[in-house]
Description:
With 248 residues, the chain is an alpha+beta fold.
Amino acid sequence: MPIPSPLPPSAESDVGNAAVSDLSLPAARGGAAGRASPTANALTNPPETFDLSAALEHLAAPAYLIDRDGHFRWVNRAYIELFGDLRGQPFVDYVAPEHRQIAQTNFARKVVGQTTTTFDLAVIAPGGRRVNLRITSAPLKRGRDVIGVFGIGIPLPRPCNPPRWILEDLTPRQQEVLKLLAEGLETQEIAKRLGVAEETARNHIRALLRATGAHSRLEAVVMGMRLGLVGPDLTQAGHEEPLPKADA
């Protein structure tokens, strides 16, 4: 389900509308005989026929669009799960103070059309928790005009295993959610198992991530497995339940 924008139509910039229309895929070449496959032929269709918005929404890594004024105009599900819905907010307000200069410098480079860069940044998550991201970003253009900056942040791995007390101090509900995630269930399935609304289930998952300091659902499950608090259930001899998907 697409996430509704909290901004009134008058506040929306061209950036959000350009998220799909300004992205295109190169035409695929044929095989050894020069004949394109049906999939390759599909990629030669006009870019507006591609559902890139859905692909961006389902990226496991946080992705965002910032307009020329430095405000978030679009964030995907993974971003909202980790940092909350910050659309309409100045991006620099959520960067760690010691990293704001590098964030502003890289943003300014993109606004004037300079090329993609990769850099590490500490971002402030709800509750004041810091998340270290490896950012790659690029100018988003309409024609020759830069109308914003598109970026993806890859959470950097934690340097060591968390202390056991972090997971042992989880509330009963958070422990239940962690076990359901370990079964490989997605949000809708977790909601059914808990007997709650889907948004309530999503809030429980967010609370679990905040409590554990995990960057994703998968990381929370891996933490639990390493500490022996959860494990893959054997449904049939020799067949383990799959790990949860990394997306939100």
